[in-house]
Design a protein that fits this description.
The strands form three sheets. This protein has a four-stranded antiparallel beta sheet with strand order 3-6-7-8. A two-stranded antiparallel ribbon has the order 1-2. Strands 4-5 form a two-stranded antiparallel ribbon. The chain has two domains: about 130 residues, no CATH class; about 70 residues, no CATH class. The protein starts with a helix and ends in a 9-residue tail after the last helix. The protein is an alpha+beta fold. The chain is globular and about 60 Å long. The protein is about 45% helix and about 15% strand. The protein binds zinc ion. The site of zinc ion has 9 residues, from loops.
């Protein structure tokens, strides 16, 4: 699975990442913590009035739902964490405290659960800013990681799994994971620590 502390880092701190420009050029840039990006997505379209804000409203609403989901889940997770001398005052600090506990317990499920949530939330946040994102894992249903497609000039290899704001799909077998529960099941299937049946 993706390193949990790396996920926490990307979630709560400014970090470097490779982005692809529209012209295909790639660049190594510093980006805001994913939580800050989510906060921007929530507030960017508020109070501006006019028809322009209407078109973007669904993104803002999804961002608010996701923020509330993360807040609730983190608060619940922290009830299992021994009391800290300095209680978390921000959501980012809460997730960091959750992580500091989860990666050090004797129960590997504690970290796996946090990891699955972070993978899912990160995907949701990134999908708000990107039309579609490739997943590096092989499809848990058909086992394929790549497929070949013709781009008009030559055959190019592309990832089998990708997701956007609404669903993940496998272009090889056509499997679709739609909605929060299914996306979480997929994240767990990919990361392989918890039986899918247990997270319904
Ligand atoms: Zn597949």
């Amino acid at each position: 699975m993706t390193d949990t502390l790396q996920l926490v880092h990307e979630f709560t701190r400014a970090h470097k990442t490779t982005i692809t420009r529209d012209n295909g050029a790639t660049e190594y840039v510093e980006v805001l913590p994913l939580l800050d990006q989510l906060q921007e997505a929530m507030t960017a379209n508020r109070g501006t009035g006019g028809s322009g804000s209407l078109a973007k409203a669904p993104v803002s609403l999804n961002a608010v739902d996701l923020w509330q989901d993360i807040t609730r889940t983190t608060a619940h997770a922290l009830t299992a964490v021994p009391v800290h001398a300095q209680p978390a005052t921000t959501l980012g600090q809460g997730i960091q405290q959750w992580a500091a506990w989860a990666v050090n317990t004797r129960n590997a499920d504690d970290e796996a659960e946090l990891n699955a949530y972070l993978v899912y939330w990160s995907g949701q946040i990134r999908a708000m800013f990107e039309p579609s994102v490739d997943l590096e894992a092989a499809c848990p249903d058909c086992g394929e990681g790549f497929t070949w497609s013709h781009d008009g000039v030559e055959y190019v290899r592309r990832r089998a799994l990708s997701y956007n704001q609404h669903r993940a799909t496998c272009v090889v077998c056509g499997q679709v994971w739609e909605g929060a529960g299914a996306m979480m099941s997929l994240a767990r299937a990919i990361h392989g620590d918890t039986p899918v049946e247990q997270c319904a």
